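Record pair follows.
FIRST:
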Amino acid sequence: MSEIKKEDNQSITPSPALSDQISNGETVGQVRELTDVEKARMQDGEAHFNRLGWKRLTVVLIVEAIALGSLGMPAAFATLGMVAGTILCVGLGLLAIYSSFVVGQVKLKYPHVQHYADAGRLMMGRFGYELFSAMFVLQLVFLVGSHTLTGSIAFLNLSNDGACSIVFGVVSAIILLLLALPPSFAEVAILGYIDFASIILAIGITVIATGVQRNEIGFASDWSAWPAKDAGFVDAFIAVTNIVFAYSFAICQFSFMDEMHTPKDFVKSIWVLGIIEIVIYTLTGALIYSFVGQGVQSPALLSAGSLVSKVAFGIALPVIFISGSINGTVAGRYIHGRIYRDSVTRYINTPKGWISWIALISVLTFIGWVLAEAIPFFSDLLAISSSLFISGFTFYFPAMMWFMLIRQGSPFSKENLVWTTLNVICFVVGIVVLVGGTYASIEDIIHRYAIGEVRGAFSCSAPA
């Protein structure tokens, strides 16, 4: 690694981020000599943020990935039908595993890439860096908003609409804020086991309860192998984007891998996570839809009946807030690291570091709460997020990375032909979701407001 020489012939070794900044021709400014205290703080910081093994990475990815996506699956199956729903759930999951593999390969080839935005710089220079930065932060804030909305729905369900929806939204935002404060992903991994147990138990209770209720009713469910008869283009694309939302783990992968002590082990993590996701999502969507039928609700826990849904939401509270908070942490780590790129403050182990960190997480959480109140309907909020951002981070951006950063030789050579085909499929899927999903989301929001199906923004009534 290069060194920065000082006038008194002393030198310091710059961080990878600083080296990258220099290599791209940006002005760094005067670099002062670090004090012994600052050097110790930096060493402690580097050690603190370099503790993830592949098993902990898997847990952190599970925390980030398996949450809201599973709750929207049964409603997506109801729109698309059992056959198309299953094919899309498995197919998009396998594509997501592959695109995540490409993301990991980029990280191994370019170790200085700390966040998705750094990959944007490699592909498109400063423009790519700023574009990816904006999309990266907006998507993570959308995810915080989604979890704020789900928390509000959960509290309203548990209390029988015992308070104004805005109050529960504020409570949810405060919980997300507090859980997002630990800045290291290794610390979040400790909560991951609670998170995973929470969502599995909540889904299990919902599946069993809906099955028992169907048996008690005594007549067959009206589920269908084929798309719903009244499902149009907009409905179908909303359902597809809800499935896409469930496979959004690639967005945080650069950030998580940056804390790994053995980054090449990431392949184990993405395969374990991908298979777990595909199994959980497919079974959740298929079983609950088969038991409930066309009347299944989103989030799916609402379909379990009044008493059981309360139990399920109570058990699901940890996953709603733990999984939601890590998105705020990732966004905060990126912004904080960018602001304090050349300062010991970026390690968040000084008074200034902690004050700036708490302030930043508070601002991000507040914006997420505003989004949740402005778009107070679950499926469409997921659809907008999937269409605008996840379509890129999970599908067409990794495909572009392979062509621009990973590929060796002609894309039409014998050894590259399979990979070329796979990446073209990823790219096309991403662009279709971007265009079709965005159009469908906007149309559905306008339609639902026009017919009065959903409450207004910043209203006390329950979200849709």
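SECOND:
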Amino acid sequence: MSDTTRSSEEVRLVPCEPGQLSPDELRTLFLFEKLTDDQLAWISEHGCTMHMTAGGTVIREGDPADLFLVLLSGTIELTRRVGQDEVRTNRTEQRGVYMGATNAYLRDDGVPRNYMMSTRALDDSDFFVLSAEDFGWMMREWFPMAIHLLEGLTIGMRNTQAAVSERQRLTALGALSAGLMHELNNPAAAASRATAALRQRVAGMRHKLAMLAAGKVDPERLVALVELQEDVIERAAKAKPLTAMETADREDELGDWMDERNVTSGWDLAPVFAQGGIDIDCLTLIEERVGTQKLLDQAIHWIGYALETEQLMTDIEDATGRVSSLVSAAKQYSQMDRAAHQWIDVHTGLDSTLVMLTHKIGDGVKIVKDYDRTLPEVPAHPAELNQVWTNLIDNAVQAMNGAGTLTVKTYREDDHVVVSIGDTGPGVPEELKKRVFEPFFTTKPVGEGTGLGLDISFRIVVNGHGGDIKLDSKPGDTKFLVRLPLTEPSSA
């Protein structure tokens, strides 16, 4: 019987009776095709078959890993639990794929061996089954050298990845915390400075008001002056912003006007009035309302203090608003108060990530947002996607060495939302493009990268969300394209 004939034959199974698969039938499975007749006979004697009806659970994540299974027919789905959610990692109908106690050959290190994921039959399925004990004995006895190599590779990589992943998380957390503290410090310091200056200006206003009162100002005129102050404040609130040249010209005009009328410290007051949108016509109106040259100086200073007070309160409002925005972005980024899985607008996570990385991006990188705001929400784990955006944006900034254009674009492609993160760096060489998603592979200098960022991103997008991530790179135009499905993965 030829291998081709064997592969096309359908094996009729009776649930779990040893010896139901003959050595010839076992040889049709790619896992066993190179074994000797004696080895196949041993497996046939120690194995059994299992039939699972559609919808049945073959193995359950967390249960003791006591079975090694090979798919003979049917379709299965593999899932892992993430928080409170069941996330599909794979779906296959390929005959010969294996699952279950695949690490049973590793030496006993005292750690309980449990299934790392669940397997469910999507339609009637059949399996060839070996106990974990038999599978482990078979591997250690028949392939001792290979097992030594696999043990070293598996345990070594496990330890290395655990240590590097932990260090990477701590490093990323430290960098984000430092950046956030830097961003918070700027508006906090600005608010503190404005508050101190405001205290001085309010004290000055009280002093000038006392001087006006001591000048025996007619009550009606004082009322008119107070009304004038309100008019000036309203005018300042509605004033159009001036260019730097216009501001300088306005300051010169105001300074000359005050100098001609012997207003003390007129050149110090001129920038305040110019910033408040006050012109010569307004100063003339103030002069007319005051009525006497004697009180003009006090009135100008009093209104100047009022303008500065308004400007300082606006500065404090802007600063505290910036702090509030940063805190909101940090909460959005961390997703601390949100469900693990939800329907999200991808732009929210992209914006919060950009805010969190502002300090790291720096002033030399121009950020271009090309968002399609009509895109529908997608089912996702937002905290995990924020980790993807962080890794991709961080890589883009490093590739540009702090100078260039970072382009974040979103658009729809069939039944997927696409997020493109591009940079104007030197690009990735053709021979390295296929390796960028490999664990521990990095193009960064020694000590500057762990090689896990893109691997983690790939697993989050592909395994965790049923999407896809690709690299499109040429000098001056490198893009990572993340495709996310618009619908929940099918459960059947």
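COMMENT: The domain at 340-485 is CATH 3.30.565.10 (Heat Shock Protein 90).
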